[in-house]
Design brief:
Elements (H helix, E strand, L loop, with lengths): L1 H4 L9 E9 L3 H11 L4 H9 L6 H18 L7 E19 L5 E17 L4
Helix pairs in contact: 3-4
Length: 126
């Protein structure tokens, strides 16, 4: 719960989250997928991810399903009224590798990993 406590603009009672550490994709590629679903209802976001051509969409869908399950089981929120309130994408570790180049010289290859946190909130019955 410390992650929600550090986000004062989120209502603690109506918000749940799920996180995944060390997804094997760069943060910029992951942000392209997460920007699509930010602010959508959970149903629409799942459809968008299920039919996306991006490879990382499967990982984002797993985290979104986990956030929905956390909201339902831990916070007793109604699944039909959930929406993606916030998504955090950040850098994780970086593997450094070498690749052979011209004249036998090495060149660095950086393989990036990402962290992902998805917050889902319940829309009130207004």
């Amino acid at each position: 719960m410390s992650l929600i406590l550090s986000r004062p603009h989120l209502d603690q009672a109506n918000t749940a989250f799920a996180r995944d550490k060390s997804i094997r994709v760069s943060p910029s590629k992951l942000s392209l997928v997460t920007d699509m679903i930010k602010g959508m209802s959970v149903d629409q976001a799942m459809l968008q991810l299920r039919f996306s051509k991006k490879g990382v969409a499967k990982e984002v869908l797993k985290v979104l399903n986990s956030a929905v399950a956390n909201a339902e089981n831990n916070h007793s929120l109604d699944v039909d009224s959930l929406y993606v309130s916030e998504i955090l994408v950040g850098k994780a570790l970086m593997m450094k590798r070498f690749m052979a180049r011209a004249k036998g010289r090495p060149s660095k290859v950086k393989k990036l990993f990402s962290n992902l946190v998805i917050f889902v909130s319940s829309r009130g019955n207004f």
